[in-house]
TrEMBL record:
Keywords: ATP-binding, Nucleotide-binding, Transport. This is ABC transporter ATP-binding protein. SMART domains: AAA (SM00382). GO terms for molecular function: ATP binding. Signal peptide: none annotated.
């Protein structure tokens, strides 16, 4: 009998925890001057749910994402991730174990793709850290993940410049899916896209979450999208946590004056997003 337990289906299970996370940047040239980009951040992310992170530009959202991904080192505090053996400090995890569980999609879908590589190479690249794959196997695997994001054979051999913005962001998502991660950090993944394309990408992200049981940390400027998409929301200001709670509660009945101010100033007052499944298929055709 196997003693290895399957991941719990408990939807209240915390898969990522951030405790007292701080990041201090030393300012170049300035004598000993420092800048607190993140102060004592605490949060927990639940399996299969979406935590939205909102806040004005410079509030520390991307810094938080980079600390989770170990792209930067925290000045204090820690990030822990649920592994088979329980919660583990990411500082102690080899990058290959971390990236198997957590992947990231960036804001600019073009800048994050190597312009000299064909799409199959880009999408299958993360797999090469884990498996020895032939060229043919890489193409097959890339095609599988392209299908998951509504793309196909046509895009497999293309270069990034041949694709539309929405297709490029789909490629970024396909590459993020290639290690079968449990958590995706989406850092303003819609900001560079037209509104109609944004709706298609949101649909896609929702389908993927439902089908693959993904957990999302979704950094966004758009309150309408957050309301539609997220379960919980974290409001940040100048590196501080202002408020954290269920979307309905925080957006409809914010407890902090800053949140009310932010809601008033952010784009995307409530509106009906054209969220329709068939749009994805149209998009997938090219
Ligand atoms: N390497 C760095 N050195 C100094 N300051 C930085 C560095 N990276 C980010 N910052 C500063 O930290 C703050 C938070 O940045 P960031 O996390 O990118 O904000 P957001 O994603 O919310 O717009 C900003 O004021 C930014 O200028
Ligand atoms: Mg940012």
């Amino acid at each position: 009998m196997s003693l290895v337990s399957m991941p719990s289906a408990d939807t209240n299970e915390v898969v990522l925890r951030v405790e007292n996370l701080c990041k201090v940047f030393r300012l170049p040239g300035a004598r000993g001057q420092v800048f607190n980009a993140l102060n004592q951040l605490n949060l927990a992310v639940t399996r299969g749910r979406t935590l939205a992170v909102v806040g004005e530009s410079g509030s520390g959202k991307s810094t938080m994402a980079q600390l989770i991904m170990k792209l930067q080192r925290p000045s204090a505090g820690r990030v822990s991730l649920r592994m088979d053996s329980g919660m583990r400090d990411v500082a102690d995890l080899p990058a290959r174990d971390l990236y198997r569980k957590v992947q990231m999609v960036f804001q600019d879908p073009y800048a994050s793709l190597n312009p000299r590589q064909r799409i199959w190479r880009i999408v299958s690249a993360p797999l090469c850290n884990y498996e020895n794959l032939s060229r043919d196997e890489r193409r097959q695997r890339a095609l599988h993940y392209l299908h998951q994001v509504g793309l196909g054979e046509t895009q497999l051999h293309a270069f990034p410049y041949m694709l539309s913005g929405g297709q490029r962001q789909r490629v970024n998502i396909a590459r993020a899916l290639a290690t079968n991660p449990e958590i995706l950090i989406l850092d303003e993944p819609l900001s560079a896209l037209d509104v109609s394309v944004q709706a298609q990408i949101i649909n896609l992200l929702q389908d993927l979450q439902r089908d693959l049981g993904l957990t999302y940390i979704f950094i966004s400027h758009d309150i309408a999208v957050v309301r539609h998409f997220a379960d919980q929301v974290l409001v940040m200001k100048s590196g501080d946590m202002v408020e954290w709670g269920d979307v309905d509660q925080v957006l409809e009945n914010p407890s902090q004056a800053y949140t009310r101010q932010l809601l008033g100033s952010m784009p995307g007052r409530p509106r009906d997003l054209p969220v329709r499944k068939e749009l994805i298929n149209v998009m997938a055709g090219g």
